[in-house]
Structure formats: structure tokens, C-alpha cells
Amino acid sequence: MERLIQPARNIQGSLRLPGDKSISHRYALLAGLAEGATRLTNFSTGADCASSLACVEALGAQVTRKDDSSVEITGTAGRFHSCAAPLDCGNSGSTMRMLSGLLAAQHGTFTLTGDPSLSRRPMERIRNPLAQMGAHIDLTDGHAPIVIHGAPLTAIDYTTPIPSAQVKTALLFAGLEAQGTTTVRESVRTRDHGELALRAFGATIDRTLDSVSIAGPQQLRAIEATIPGDISSAAFFLCAAALFPGSNLIFDDLGLNPTRATLLDVLTALGAHIGVLNLEDKHGELVGVVQVNAPPQGLTGTTISGALSAQLIDELPVLAVIGPYTQNGIRIRDAKELRVKESDRIALVAANLRAMGADVEEFDGGLDVPGGQTLHGATIDSGGDHRIAMAFSVAALRAHGDTLIRGAESAAISFPEFFDLLDRVAER
Ligand code: S3P
User: Fold this and answer.
1) Cis status, amide bond into 217, omega within 30 of 0
2) Which residues fall within 8 angstroms of residue 175, CB to CB, at 6 or more apart?
3) Can you tell me the distance from the alpha carbon of 140 to that of 124, in angstroms, rounded to the nearest whole number?
4) Which is the closest atom of ligand 1 to the Cα of 22?
5) Which residue in 116, 164, 199, 391 could disulfide with 317, CB within 3.0 to 4.6 Å?
6) Distance (Å, rounded) from C-alpha 355 to C-alpha 376?
7) From atom 16 of ligand 1, which residue's Cα is the shortest distance away?
8) How far apart are CA 209 and CA 200, in angstroms?
9) Residues designated as active site
10) Ligand 1: residue whose CA is nearest its atom 9
11) Domains present along the chain, CATH in parentheses
């Protein structure tokens, strides 16, 4: 599907966004293993989280969709059913990696498959530590399909070589069922939704500044929860609003977990005005109202590197594409992980920015996007990657002329409502 994006004059309005993708995955997977009926409202509407639901259903959980965003999951009380058919994780790396952690200690053999993009993504990062715990996992040349032969697990103390919340969570999920205390240490604090979700479902977790431990085995109990709005989906609108002096955009019930909200600091550093109100705690997750207004003189510029790059990993594409519209540009370093996401996001951002007439320099682990540039509308190849399709829809708002986004349907992987909401808040 192609989508035509016309330039905008301003961004105004208020939005309540579908539930956070990372939290929805974790709640769906843990609910599938817990005892009792979990009721979730504002569950992510994206296809990725539907993959997690379909997998736990195939593993014996009862999944009942109440409406688009409410779901009831009756769990398997600690024991997934065996399942002869492959578990289809679709486009979702989160489903594949985190479910592998849960399945490693279960009885039976399980096969996990994915679409062509997921089948190219690295899976050694979960196989290695899980194998150290005693798991029997076969990969296909380092990738999916993954075959897991359930086995008893023993706790390990593991330091993650690359910052990855998916890997950390997979190990904590495996630790839930292992004998002994599993500890995961990380040099950069990645998103902690796995830890918070385990606690919400009744598990005991110990945390220090740079480590998290879980003693196994433990049982989980069902919960009732409303999932906070997805700040990585909000990112596209936050960045869009930051580009238009006179803009005013408000988000209700937005997830503001400190390990996810770094974008607000970056936008503030770029000169945008960000207000945060009505903070609340929901199962350990911070939720609040966010208001963004653009600075009259335009955004300045910044360099994102080190720990910041890991914490902003999903927001880097949209930050890169607003670079040309800033005064001093956006430089991104230490972000090689972008090359092994749903697409090679460094290559696609660079190629598509050039298609819009921008000057951009590409590095192995980053990009230099100079500021003060004027872009023109172009045809964008999203590479079937949701975040590329949405990022370039934002770049298109300030370009001269219309932009055609190819593969626009991929937005539905995380955010099916994206284009409708963009039309609602963009003044033309
Ligand atoms: C996620 C972690 C990140 C992120 C992905 C979701 C999660 O991946 O890019 O969109 O929910 O844990 P990595 O763990 O591979 O960095």
C-alpha cells in the first residue's frame, strides 16, 4: 500500500494512544503462563502484539478479544501445552526472543518461525545465554526458525554484551523457571518493563543499579491492567509537533517509564517545550499527560551517542529525519544495532533522506544529518519497516511537495491508527 503525505502548516490537537508495545508483549506472554484470567485494556493494537497473543493461545492459554483493545487471557498455570505446529512470531523480534526464554524450561519441543525480516535477525544473542542455563536450542545459521527442546534450567549470572531489553527479559523469563538465582547485568540500563511486569504478576525480583535477579522457580498470578499509551508511537507526533512554531499537542495517559522517556529530554535539549502533568503509577509503570510546543526560533541540534543511543533505539529514525529541519543537525553514534532491526535502519534513513534531497553521511554505527536543509517530496521505500514508514511521514510534513510512502501498511506492525491520527492533528 502507498500513502501520499502532504506538507502541513501546523500540528494541533490531543491524542490518547494505543497501549505500549513492549508492555503489551510482556503482559500477554506472562498472562499466558500465569494462573487465572488476566484482563487487559488499552492493549496494543499492532500486529506484533497480536503475534504474542496468537502464540500463547497456541500454547494452551484461552484468549478472548473483548474489543479492538481489550483482551482476556486465561493462563496455563505454569505449564504450556505442547504444540506440533510452528509458533508464528510474524515480524516480532520481541515475541520470538522473549517467548524463547519462557519455553526453554517447558516440557516438549517448540518451533518458532517468523516472516522474512524476522528470519534475518540475529538470535545467537538469546541462544548463547539460554544454552549456558542448560537450554537445548537449535537455530538455522544463527537465525529463525528456532527449535527449542524444553529442558531443566539452572540459574546463571550473565553480563549482556550488547544492551538489549529483549535479551534481558528472555533471561529473566527463563530464570522464573530455573533452579537458583539468575542475575542479568547490563552496562546501559535498558527498558525495565520485563522486571516491572514480572513483579506485577506476583514474582519477586531484586534490583541494583546495574543488575536484576530472579530466584526460580516462581508461580505467576493473573492481573487486571490498563496499558499506558506507547511513547515510541507518540515519538512520531512529538517530533512532528516540535517542527512547527505555534504547534500544541497533548497526550493523555502516555507511558512515561524513565527508561523509555529519554526522547522528552532530547526534545527539551533541542529547544521544544515539554510539559508533564498528572503522573500516576500503574503496576510500577509511570503514566501521565504530556504537552509539547515547538520553539518559535526552531530546534537547535544535538549529538546522540553512548547509552543515549541504546535508550533511544526505536526513536532514532524519527530523530534523524527531523535533523535537516534543525539549525545544527542531528548526529547519531554508537547505534549499530539499528542495522539489525526490522530493516537496516541506518541505510534506509540515509537513502530516503537523500531521495528527499538531503545531504547525509552514513557510518557503520550512525549518521550525520546536517541542519538548515530544505527537503522536497519524494517516493520513500519503507523496506516494510513500520518505523521507517512513520518517520518519513513526519519528514514529509515539512518538505516542499507531496511524499509517497511505499509499504505504508507496515505502520500496522506497531500503530495501525497512525495515518488517521496524523490526518487529525496535521493542519493543511
Ligand atoms: C524492545 C527492545 C528493543 C526495541 C524493540 C522492543 C523490547 O530491542 O528495539 O522495539 O520490548 O524489549 P532490543 O532488545 O533488540 O534492543
Assistant:
1) yes
2) 133, 153, 155, 181, 182, 184, 213, 214, 215, 216
3) 10
4) 11
5) 391
6) 8
7) 164
8) 20
9) 314
10) 314
11) 2-18+228-427 (3.65.10.10), 21-226 (3.65.10.10)
As a whole number, the mean pLDDT across the chain is 98
* CA 22 to ligand 1 center in whole angstroms: 8
Q: Which residues line ligand 1 (CB under 6 A)?
A: 22, 94, 164-166, 169, 191, 313-314, 337
Count, residues in the chain: 428
What pLDDT, in 10s, does the model give residues 20-60?
999 999 999 999 999 999 999 999 999 999 999 999 999 99
Share of the chain above pLDDT 70, in %: 100
Q: How far is the C-alpha of 347 from the C-alpha of 364, rounded, in Å? A: 9
CA dist 27 and 24 (Å) reads: 5
The reported pLDDT for the residue numbered 263 is: 98
Ligand 1 centroid vs 363 CA: distance in angstroms? 22
Which element (helix H / strand E) includes 31? helix 21-33
Q: Which residues lie across from 41 on neighbouring strands?
A: 226
Write the pLDDT tens digit of every residue in 256-285. 999 999 999 999 999 999 999 999 999 999
- Average pLDDT of the segment spanning 382-394: 99
Residues 326-359: tens digit of each pLDDT: 999 999 999 999 999 999 999 999 999 999 999 9
Residue of 166, 169, 184, 231 to mutate, ligand 1, most atoms within 8 A of C-beta? 166
pTM: 0.98
Angle CA(81)–CA(87)–CA(88) in degrees, nearest 5?
Answer: 155
Longest dimension (CA), the chain: 61
Backbone angles phi, psi at 145, to 5 degrees: -60, 145
Which residues, including other chains, have CB under 8 Å from residue 351's CB and lie 6 or more apart? Answer: 381
Q: What is the CA(113)–ligand 1 centre distance, in A?
A: 18
Alpha helices by DSSP H, 59-140: 93-103, 124-132
Q: In b/e form, how buried is each residue of 309-340, taking b as 16+ CB within 10 angstroms? A: bbbbbbbbbbbbbbbbbbeebbbbbbbebbee
Nearest CA, atom 15, ligand 1: 164
> For residue 155, what pLDDT is reported?
98
Q: What pLDDT is attached to residue 68?
A: 85
